[in-house]
Specification:
The radius of gyration is 21 Å and the shape is elongated. The protein has 2 domains: 201 residues, Alpha-beta prism (UDP-n-acetylglucosamine1-carboxyvinyl-transferase, Chain); 206 residues, Enolpyruvate transferase domain (UDP-n-acetylglucosamine1-carboxyvinyl-transferase, Chain), CATH 3.65.10. Helix content is 31%, strand content 25%. By secondary structure, it is of the alpha+beta class. The chain is built from 14 helices and 23 strands.
Amino acid sequence: MACIEIYGGHPLDGEVVIQGSKNAALPILAGVVLHRGTTVLHNCPRISDVMHMIKILEEMGCSVLQSGNTLCIDAKGLNKPCVPEELGEKMRCSVIFLGALLGREGRAEIPYPGGCTIGERPIDMHVDALHQMRAEIQEGCGCLAGKSSRLCGSRISLRFPSVGATENVILAAVLAEGTTEIRGGAREPEIIELCRFLNGMGAKIRGAGTERIRIDGVRELSDSEFVLMPDRIVTGTYLMAAIASRGRCMLREAPQEQMENVISAAERMGARIERMPEGMRVDARAAVKALPMLRTAPHPGFPTDLQSQVMAALCLADGESRIQESVFEARFRTAGELAKMGADISICGQEARIQGTVRLHGETVAAPELRGGAALVIAGAAAEGRTRIEGCHYIQRGYEDICRDMRALGADIRMI
């Protein structure tokens, strides 16, 4: 199994172009099955989760051509509305094929989804919402089997702004009869991106990015071409790497308007950020400042997907920081690996207390999940000596080539 090796302890200084968004690409790839024709996607990240989605589409009967970061998908040949068990179990996002396949084919079979082990992520909201749209869904033998003669619009209230449930309902509603209204849905930028993509195919969706989304069902969609947004979580990862190493960087094509809460936190940590049309210029050569309290929350709150990376940077802050995790209940697993590198972190329930230290030291550590793995790369770049990170397959789920990008930023890093 491949590992990442880093020789750290010096400030980063370089620039990198931000890849396309993982969290936008995955639901959009599920959404292409709604159209019985051709869709072209540009700036699609070459990550393992996208590769799994492509394999799922091909298993269903779709044709997928890939050239660099461009995908050309012809879904008219879809004849098997089932997600293979061995593929669905590898990634959480496979569950959103449920709404899309029910919308197009009136039937679907999805294995219970996999992904990172960051706590319970129940799918009952997905199932309950689709029941309200007159889908029959049976659970058993490790899978969900759904059918519907035709989905019908409904007024759906989500008890929590779940991104996945919101995406599933949107995809189910596009070809449904009548109007669907989602109340209390997720407001993440990737939800807006999904709706922008679907509207470009002929869907009728309003209110994306608000707590009330309205979808008027249409009979069919049309061929389209779409450019995916840059990845805000990847941007935040490299921003935190610059802060932890007390370096400088230029993050080209960074989606600044979608990162106000992250930029604010970075500035409170001592970074100076210059916003430019071509991206963000970061100067983090000053000492890292502690954060008295950082609380994760659904958008527009601070993203849980950047909590581990911020924790890694705060390990080198002057003073004590506190982080409250309000989205997932098992997302402090990275703390134990950081402690091996000299970090002083204590966990009490859903709160982490980080006592800043002068330096971290290189160590052999293991990525516990995707974002935790990225946090260890940040820590390794800032630590004195050699760091070896095992479990790289987690990192490859969301980063095209984190070693390439970190080298562009000045890190001494390689895959071995």
